[in-house]
Fold these 2 entries.
Entry 1:
Amino acid sequence: MKLTRRQLLKYGLRGTVLVTAGTAYANTWSGQIELTRPTLTIPSLPRQFHGLRIGHLSDLHASLIVSRDHIASAAQLLMREKPDLIVLTGDFISGATKTISGDMGAFDASYLERCVEGLSALSAPLGIYAVLGNHDFWSGPRAVEAICQRFREQLGVVWLRNESRALEKAGKKIHLLGVDDYWEASSSLHAAKQDVLPDEVSILLSHNPDINEEIDLGKTKIDLVLSGHTHGGQVVLPFVGQPFLPSGFGQKYRAGLVRDGARQTYVTRGVGHLLAPLRLNCPPEVTLLTLV
Ligand SMILES: [Fe+2]
């Protein structure tokens, strides 16, 4: 059978779409989770904290399409590194999801259980600290309450809901701050910052990196922001990228390290995925940050 040029193009295009979709599906498998090890320099970091290793997980999105085993793989990958401290920056479940055509899905307690079970291996000498993401809030107050309670009881998580905790070593302090998701009216950087002196090192956990807008507007001194939310784009097409990021800053906070003057923001691509089990040019990420 002889194919016309048009048929060749048609079959070629279909083949490319199928191979791309297959690759994107395979990229969501647990074996594709990438451990990244950024080293961040904070000039005013007290000597006692040099070399502090922070394990960072975000956007677990436990759901029908993100399994307990996938989350457990991420937790095990991190625990092999023996971090001093672990931070979790929200979107623990995919419950109710807001889309342009309205709300989709609802809070399912079994997704919370798979997330808690998946993360059950986590422990760190300086503790596990967490903030909530937009999907946690969108799932309703009952979901927020259940997430906070289960994580506190099962994993010993300390929630930073517009508050801070001091980490002390040999009389020197650094501060961990956390805010509710930036899209929520309950988010308050002002409240989170109130116990921190201007010359002390402050590390802010914020699910959404767009919190940088408020930091700049308030001329608030923050040394490091740790975020997720954008999933690194999740599906990043060759030559096209991912033009639909949920950020008012366009591509700026898509993934990785971003500098705003002296302040640094690290945006992890996250562990899970949303809407479909697809990731392209954007593998799931477990992050181990070292402060120097
Ligand atoms: Fe997310």
Entry 2:
Amino acid sequence: MDDTIKAAVAGAASLIREGRRFIAFTGAGVSAESGVPTFRGPGGLWATIDPGVLEISRFHRDPVTCWEAIRELFYSPSRPRPSSAHRILASWEKRGILSFLVTQNIDGLHREAGTRHISEFHGSIEYLVCMSCGERTDAGPAALASGLLEILPPRCATCGGVLKPDFVFFGEGIPTAAYQAAFEAASGAGLCMIIGSTGLVYPAAEIPWTVKRAGGRIIEIDPGETEFTRSIADIHIGLGAVEALGLLDAALGPSLNASARP
Ligand SMILES: [Zn+2]
């Protein structure tokens, strides 16, 4: 490990030990090592798939075509699994170190790893929502195995309306509850750890800025430089999420928990 990384990890660990109210803000980079494909950039989904299948107006007009692409993209039988990065964040919540997590990801992997105090800012593939009555339907592995998506579009068991994945399509707003929970957590936080987010997608990217403006500190984990690196990051750990969180977890040690902190 080079000295820059070593110093960054040590600095991040001592910031966490200070015991400020600590939130995490995650983007695609936290799931990259779980094999979740990214949307943008070379090799991203938009290189091969027409982004129009996730436009809400098109979904209204032609749910079957949209659903055919969506099923292949997000609901294939070989679903990604949480990585050690997701599991370490969940363990920090359990130990009282991390108080809240905001994710831009729709893959549901933080929840699957055990994180409970969470805002899934752009929704999640784990549920479908009825376009007519608003009822939510579980779209977890068991529901899929029992044939939920065999006939497209899937229909609401209550009213027969068309079901849509409960994540944010192009042309839709952020779900109110997720939005409020995220900004409430950010405005009360003294420390925000950004993991694998480019900082280009708004309003999500406002969350770390909210912490910074209120005098909070920012740790960033990303192998490259992002919009946050030279603007608001106090500490930048230039590694992938799995490696960086592994080092940080080791630096914090097994005995750190909420009650042990000053
Ligand atoms: Zn319905």
